[in-house]
Write a structure and sequence with these properties.
The protein is mainly alpha-helical. It is 91% helix and 0% strand. The mean pLDDT is 87.
């Protein structure tokens, strides 16, 4: 009989241990439940205050919200989340492209500046400036010529005009220019 009572006592002890574990677990769940209830209560108070403050601020600003419009906007936003994601991906790609193109654009700018410096050293800009003046003078001379009645020149008068200092200087300039261009063309082709 003693064996039976020892066996029963051992079972009672095991049941007590299991009961203690269950009670400990129930107590932990009660504490967690109380903590969650406190959190929900605090969040409810904060939410109500935030909602009240938002309503008061909207009222101060004279803004009226239509709940249906707000719901429609939220649903459209949710429906287009994929589109917003694609838009953000596109901006990220453009940002990456700008980062990649930065050094290239800088290099192109440096090359362009160097080429402009080379053109200036060769006298291209001065030449273009002189050509612009020459073209302006040609336009002025053309306008002056078309506004005046055209005179008839005899062969003798043409010879005298060719002998004038202005015509001689113009012919000399043109001949010198053509001669220099011919020499430059020869030096390039050789």
């Amino acid at each position: 009989m003693e064996l039976k009572t020892d066996n029963i006592q051992e079972q009672i002890n095991q049941i007590n241990q299991k009961l203690d574990l269950v009670l400990h677990y129930v107590n932990e769940q009660r504490l967690k439940s109380e903590a969650i209830e406190d959190l929900v209560s605090d969040l409810s108070i904060i939410g109500k205050d935030a909602f009240t403050s938002a309503i008061e601020e909207l009222d101060k600003q004279g803004i009226e919200l239509n709940v249906d419009d707000l719901k429609t906007l939220v649903f459209k936003f949710i429906r287009n989340i994929n589109n917003f994601s694609q838009l953000i991906d596109m901006f990220e790609s453009l940002n990456d492209l700008a980062k990649d193109m930065g050094p290239i654009i800088t290099e192109v700018g440096i090359d362009f500046t160097n080429k402009l410096h080379e053109f200036e050293q060769k006298g291209y800009f001065e030449f273009l400036g002189q050509m612009a003046k020459l073209f302006d003078n040609a336009v002025v001379a053309y306008n002056k010529t078309t506004n005046e009645p055209t005179k008839q020149y005899s062969l003798w008068r043409i010879m005298r005009e060719i002998n004038s200092p202005e015509v001689k200087q113009s012919i000399g300039f043109m001949l010198t220019l053509l001669k220099n261009m011919s020499q430059e063309t020869k030096s390039i082709t050789q």
